[in-house]
Description:
By secondary structure, chain A is α/β, with parallel strands linked by helices. Chain A contains eight helices and eight strands. An eight-stranded mixed β-sheet of chain A has the order 3-2-1-4-5-6-7-8, with helices on both faces. In chain A, helix 3 (48-58) runs parallel beside helix 4 (69-82) and helix 5 crosses helix 6 (117-130). Chain A is globular. Chain B has helices spanning 2-11, 27-38, and strands spanning 18-23, 42-49, 52-58. In chain B, strands 1-3-2 form a three-stranded antiparallel β-sheet, covered by helices on one side. Chain B starts with a helix and ends with a strand.
Amino acid sequence: MPLPLENNEESEWLERYSRQLLLKEVGGAGQHRLGQATVAIVGTGLMTIPLTLYLTAAGIGHLLLLDQPQSTQTHRATLHALNPLVQTTASPIPTTLEQTIEQMNGCNLTLLAHDHAHIRQQFNQAALQTRHTLISGWQTKDLYFISTIHANPDPNPPCLLCTETVCNTFAATHPNPHPDPNLTRMAAGVIGSVLAMETLTLLLDNRTQICYGARVFYPEEGRYDAMPVLKNPHCPACSSHSSD
Amino acid sequence: MTFVRVKLKLESMAPGTTLRIRLNAGEPLENLPRSLQEEGCRVVSLASDGDAFLLVVEK
Ligand SMILES: [Zn+2]
């Protein structure tokens, strides 16, 4: 049958995503994959603002915002205005490991942008048990870190606790004598954008750009460095989950 | 928008297969054959078809 076929819903979809559809990294198949994905975002800090805006504009099917629902209501309205084709749901953060595992099993990806250590470790434990990919961004002292715990290609990667231990030790031994609070806030936005890019790469290509460790971001210099991380054989979180 | 629509259709087609596209005169007729050639397609034919045009391309 000769093209083009006309259909209102399809036209809206084509119009909205036309620029992405032309990218070889996305195309029609990739756009459908994004539209079928459910991504959970844990936390409502500064870095989640650009993160959720980019993922909404890109056309992720369902964003699950895990934090206090009242704090995300206004932001959800903003996201809906940006792209009504994206469904957003606000929900409290699971309080038990079992609930966290259940939540993770219902999502394609979980993004951790929460600073509380016990919440981060709860999601780390759940990722270890489900072998789900866990993308994380956090601030320690004046530095920002990003990591992706991904079982592919390393079947037994260092966990988030292994990664955090290395990164946080680095931050403690590399203090910034003159931190600029404005740059630190802007850095949160940069990290949110990088987390969005990493999410899209993983969903489109099952490939991570932050494999084998983490990235450190220096707000003062606007510069990234690789932060190699090895699995800690005595890690209290992952040493008992080894697949060896 | 015609180009996006055609590119999506081509994505799901095997190399060597052909696609027939009905085009109106004007911008699509001027740009689409060239854009598809730049994408690596071969223009098999372009002929008038009633009040429009029929473009046949091979992926
Ligand atoms: Zn570990």
